[in-house]
Input
Amino acid sequence: MKVGPLHVVRDATLRQWQALQDVWSRFSKELDSGKGKNALADLVRDQTHALLHSPLAARIAPSGFSEPPGPDDAADRLAVERVIASYRKAVAESAPPPTPSMWDRIGREKGAFLAALNRSDEATVRRNLGRMFTNRLTWGLGQVDADHPELLRSPEPTHLHYRFTDTVLNLAEAVGAARVTSMAQNSADHLQPLNRNLDEMYTLSAAILGFDPSFPAVGSAYGFRLANALVSIDSLTHAYTAYRFRTLGAGSVFEIGGGYGCLAMMAYRAGVRNYAVFDLPWVNVLQGYFLLRALPAGTVSLYGEPAAPIRILPYWVLDREPDKSCDVAVNTDSLPEMGRATALGYMPKLRRVVRDVFLSINQEAKAPVPGVGEQHCVGELIEESGGWERLSRNRYWLRQGFVEEVYRPVS
Output
């Protein structure tokens, strides 16, 4: 009979392990026994799938809302005129991506808005963009949804409140503003990690970041109030990525798939003055509007305009960029959702334009998309394409189920 490896453990150490195991066993049994009877047990069971910390004894931040632009807002009218002109120039040149993706369906759902863009209906476009976070325009482009304002007004905390508190601590841990708890070292703190002063964590994180991680009052934005500022899950999440740009020494950044523009805004606040977003023309409209309203005049240029520190461009313009023209390329929560040939086609393009590294922050569960097929794993796309060396792979600090990887182009 073969006996496996034997380990000698001190009796005191063994008793400590057993005690810790008993604590977790009792905690789990309490959750199970309280199902349907204990609201806290139900909360833990229902919410922890989306959190990186237990919500036990979590503190909750007050919600905050902003108003849509007024009818006499000249800057708002000018932003709308510019995004319409840029969109019409782009669609006159555009060709569909090589393979279907979930974004084809999402684009079709915006049919009425796209029709308004095509006929240059400034009143309709302006009305929609002024409420972009409370209608369906930004769905899928960030951690936002038209249902969220109602949840934020709930008299009782919802999953959104717990997600936000979790994100505040995630950022604080990521930048070193809060210590990571340990079940083995201090089970009391570890079992209630969100029971902390949120204003203090946010203020300490902002000091380490060195820039403002709050959210602008654009597009009827909503979120939470911390330290007298409007803050959102997205603003904290993208603030961390902008912080990573600095640690990677990025003076210039190309973003593939830019959401509604939040990361570009945070990058500018973090000091990046050469930033380009490449995306679908209708998504460029949302990015352009958001950034034109959120950042100082002269900061943002749209397709067909003279270049500014932040350029918002249709995806095919990446092919026109010079070799080795950016320090860092970044993709967050995007490549897995593209059609396979489209996503794979970006790999040699990025390898051509990147001087230093490609930063990928993506899920890789490969969930199926009806009518399209399963989503992709960036690591597998990189391996199939070839020409990259992976420098690091880590669980992502800010969101459950995401991986942060850094790749370097090689000959």
In short: The radius of gyration is 23 Å.
